Amino acid sequence: MEATGIYGDPLALYLSDKGLIISVVNPVQIHAFGKAELLRNKTDKIDAKLIARYCASQHPPAWQPAPLCERQLLALVRHRNKLNEMFLTEENRLSVADEVVCDSHAKIITLLKQEIKDTELKIKKHIDDSPSLKKNKGLLESIPGIGERLSATLLAYIGDGSRFHHSGQVVAYAGLNPKLHESGQLKGRAHLSKQGSAELRKALYMPALAAISCNKVVKKQWEQLTARHKGGKVGVCAVMRKLLRLAYGVMKSGTLFNAEIPLAV
Predict the structure, then answer these.
(1) N or C, which end of the chain has less CB nearby within 10 Å?
(2) Do 172 and 196 contact (CB within 8 A), yes or no?
(3) Per residue in 204-247, pLDDT tens?
(4) 93 and 117 in contact (C-beta within 8 Å)?
(5) Where along the chain do its domains lie?
(6) What's the first-to-final CA gap in the chain, in angstroms?
(7) What is the Cβ-side half-sphere exposure of residue 262, based on CA atoms within 13 angstroms?
(8) CA 115, 117, 120 angle in degrees (round to 5)?
(9) Residue 264: how many other CB atoms lie within 10 Å
């Protein structure tokens, strides 16, 4: 089946619980497979047959559900993110609202503030109640630049990192891997693939900026990039990748971050 995030996960879990072997595949891969077959039409029936042919020829790996504690944490983190989006929307509406509805917007904002606070407490308690999550939280927060908010997001989306074979896979999962287009004499510029978790990229952005000043490893990389005139967005994206690799490294090694010891990831 194609990966569809929050919509497909419950179905995948249900089928897995029933003892069925299933694969959850990135829709981009299915689409590319269909283009290779020169398919022109698109219907549910045609798509179903295409997915069946893809599985028969490519043999994608079997899907394994994340542990319950990680699935519940992901639900909480997604809920918090959605509440934050609603809060910002209401604040923007209040700034331009007619006086007759200002009180209503203000009440909604107050309610959302409380819900966000309650959800943050639930996330903290959920992590503290799980020995594995609590252990990895400590490892992640030993990295300068990673605080409670990012550590919870990382644990929700990549878990303990065990389903990834190397840090490059984690980077690709977040959509932070560079994508280069070159053909003949045409030399294109590399840009982010963005074929991964937008929420994870969003969560990494501000901590990456903070890490430039407080994390020696990240700061050194940033200085090297700016010396080659690769600061700005390019540099920040590189720092986000570095922070993600460090996060994967401490969980894989099971040791606290040490700027003097390179991590093999």
Answers:
(1) N
(2) yes
(3) 999 999 999 999 999 999 999 999 988 888 899 999 999 999 99
(4) no
(5) 9-58, 68-129, 159-253
(6) 30
(7) 2
(8) 110
(9) 9
